[in-house]
């Protein structure tokens, strides 16, 4: 049975420049701050950054994988608090997602609060998902 305070298994996602190119092709967001160090620097960024929606999507993947078959996400929100800098290396960078069940509501939904970090720094803030139960892991 899922309980308030239960933690979700930690998920990590590696993000490389190649991933940014593939995401740009799929999303249509070809802004050069996502692939060119010189263009990123020209607008005051310390380097190439991941697409914000790519980061959000990876977090959503962690939540839906945990929630399991039959569950659905009713709401999902976050604030971008720091860019995800992606170095021009084969290793790229690691995005880490931790979470816990923050609230079980009378209507059967549950709120999950998530912490999203990269290189030890929080990159998304106030990240929350409201889940409609299905076959939630641990139940």
From TrEMBL:
Protein name, UniProt field: MaoC family dehydratase
PANTHER family per record: (3R)-HYDROXYACYL-ACP DEHYDRATASE SUBUNIT HADB, 3-HYDROXYACYL-THIOESTER DEHYDRATASE HTDX-RELATED
Family: Belongs to the enoyl-CoA hydratase/isomerase family.
Domain of life: Bacteria
Alphabetized InterPro entries for the sequence: Fatty_acid_synthase, HotDog_dom_sf, MaoC-like_dom
UniProt organism field: Streptomyces chryseus
Domain MaoC-like: 10-111
